[in-house]
Amino acid sequence: MIIAGVILAGGQSSRFGRHKMFEVFQGLPLYHHSLNALRQNNLCPIIIATNDALFPSFPPHSDVTWLIETPSHQGPLFALHQLFIENPDIEWFFVIASDMPYMSADFVKLLLQKIDSCYDAVIPQQSARIQPLAALYRRSALATTTKLVANNHRSMKALLAEIRVHYVDFSVNDNVFTNINYETDWPKGDK
């Protein structure tokens, strides 16, 4: 079974004011924390989904395949759909947003252990809050993403409402899901 590691790095960072994925956190660009978590679990291929405007800003990575979202800025559901279309040999995609400073190899490993062919997605949840941008998606969801994208839906929740999902509980205090949207989101003393 082929499991790809995917970093979603095509956003506009409009709330942050500049491209946050390149901000340095604990000595590394923010997206690199997600990249390292995937690498440490030997996921292959590793794909960074971005857009043609951001692509030149990334340094070369010998172990990374690039997906240039076309058209750009359509959101994570559109990116996932394009990943399914352009990678027909991959069964599962471990998708992580590029703005999660505490993403860890242990989290990735734990979620990988929850893969089950009965499901189309494995989604973390903290109480009633789901975390669809640190989750696993199976190629079996392709027909649903095709329908949703064709009808101009952009919500990951719309996808989850129509596929078989295994929800995995995490503590509301687990900081692995922390994401940075504004300058004020940086944990004090950590940057």
TrEMBL record:
<keyword id="KW-0808">Transferase</keyword>
<dbReference type="GO" id="GO:0005737">
    <property type="term" value="C:cytoplasm"/>
</dbReference>
<feature type="binding site">
    <location>
        <position position="99"/>
    </location>
    <ligand>
        <name>GTP</name>
    </ligand>
</feature>
<keyword id="KW-0501">Molybdenum cofactor biosynthesis</keyword>
<dbReference type="InterPro" id="IPR013482">
    <property type="entry name" value="Molybde_CF_guanTrfase"/>
</dbReference>
<keyword id="KW-0548">Nucleotidyltransferase</keyword>
<feature type="binding site">
    <location>
        <position position="63"/>
    </location>
    <ligand>
        <name>GTP</name>
    </ligand>
</feature>
<dbReference type="GO" id="GO:0005525">
    <property type="term" value="F:GTP binding"/>
</dbReference>
<dbReference type="InterPro" id="IPR029044">
    <property type="entry name" value="Nucleotide-diphossugar_trans"/>
</dbReference>
<comment type="similarity">
    <text>Belongs to the MobA family.</text>
</comment>
<dbReference type="GO" id="GO:0046872">
    <property type="term" value="F:metal ion binding"/>
</dbReference>
<keyword id="KW-0342">GTP-binding</keyword>
<protein>
    <recommendedName>
        <fullName>Probable molybdenum cofactor guanylyltransferase</fullName>
        <ecNumber>2.7.7.77</ecNumber>
    </recommendedName>
</protein>
<keyword id="KW-0547">Nucleotide-binding</keyword>
<feature type="binding site">
    <location>
        <position position="99"/>
    </location>
    <ligand>
        <name>Mg(2+)</name>
    </ligand>
</feature>
<feature type="binding site">
    <location>
        <position position="20"/>
    </location>
    <ligand>
        <name>GTP</name>
    </ligand>
</feature>
<dbReference type="Pfam" id="PF12804">
    <property type="entry name" value="NTP_transf_3"/>
</dbReference>
<keyword id="KW-0963">Cytoplasm</keyword>
<feature type="binding site">
    <location>
        <begin position="8"/>
        <end position="10"/>
    </location>
    <ligand>
        <name>GTP</name>
    </ligand>
</feature>
<dbReference type="InterPro" id="IPR025877">
    <property type="entry name" value="MobA-like_NTP_Trfase"/>
</dbReference>
<dbReference type="GO" id="GO:0006777">
    <property type="term" value="P:Mo-molybdopterin cofactor biosynthetic process"/>
</dbReference>
<keyword id="KW-0460">Magnesium</keyword>
<comment type="function">
    <text>Transfers a GMP moiety from GTP to Mo-molybdopterin (Mo-MPT) cofactor (Moco or molybdenum cofactor) to form Mo-molybdopterin guanine dinucleotide (Mo-MGD) cofactor.</text>
</comment>
<keyword id="KW-0479">Metal-binding</keyword>
<feature type="domain" description="MobA-like NTP transferase">
    <location>
        <begin position="5"/>
        <end position="162"/>
    </location>
</feature>
<dbReference type="GO" id="GO:0061603">
    <property type="term" value="F:molybdenum cofactor guanylyltransferase activity"/>
</dbReference>
